[in-house]
Amino acid sequence: MTTKKKLKHRQKLETSRISRISRTKQFIISNTKSSLMNNIKWLEVFDWLQNENISFQLKTLLSIEQSYCDFIRELESTSILIDDSGDFTEFLEIEFVRTDSSDALLKFLLGSKISFNQTENRIQINGYEFMAKS
Domain 3-130 falls in which CATH fold? Predict the structure, then answer.
């Protein structure tokens, strides 16, 4: 890709990201009761997952689909890159992260005081508590 095309591509990604963040903030205000996670907690979770080489699924608030991540491409203080698109996901966009349960993960989450739901073999870390639907 030429330098001009790269710059245009980055500008397009940034414009899309700003628009997506704005829509996400509106969704949060309208549909959630409270945030269960913050940037520091998400950073701790993703740093731990990265160090342990654990794959996970991530769902954002505005997406119907879940994204699968077998390794983190880049981790910043407020966002994560989980694929080769160059399109970072802001922590505030995350509805949940789901991964296989393990004793090490449980110990980490409990020690870090991070709220989670557990089924027989899966752990889900939710980003928000939603309002009851009437």
Answer: 3.30.1240
